[in-house]
Amino acid sequence: MVRAGVISDELWALVAPLMPSREGLRGRPLSDHRRILEGIAWRFRTGSPWRDLPEEFGPWQTVWKRHHRFSIDGTYQRMFDVVRSRCGIDANDDLAELLSIDSSVVRAHQHAAGAPTIPGRALAAATDHTGGSLE
């Protein structure tokens, strides 16, 4: 079961007027913006690849493309600005505190542990080409 309803009615009332419109343009109408935003939120909350997006949010390509467009055309920035101003969050001080990352949950990749990746590589580096020790 996919958890939907992440975007509350109150939040949607703030950001809905900021969504791009195809009014006056030819072509197919845009998919429901709220459902697309729910899909984007689901993807970032779970950390899954775009291709694993559940069908309830529509085709993953559509959700990714809308996310990409919102990033480029400033839709996200306008949404963040409206929410910040409505909630009284100072753009410089409070937001940095809200978005800080706790380093205790950031892990290094297993290959960053410092062990040689090829067996004997450390030994080969410590000897010269004639087989003698460099020491």
UniProtKB/TrEMBL annotation:
Annotated InterPro entries: IS402-like_dom, Transposase_6_like
Domain Insertion element IS402-like, chain residue ranges per copy: 7-80
NCBIfam families the UniProt entry points to: transpos_IS5_3
Official protein name in the record: Transposase
Organism the protein comes from: Amycolatopsis endophytica
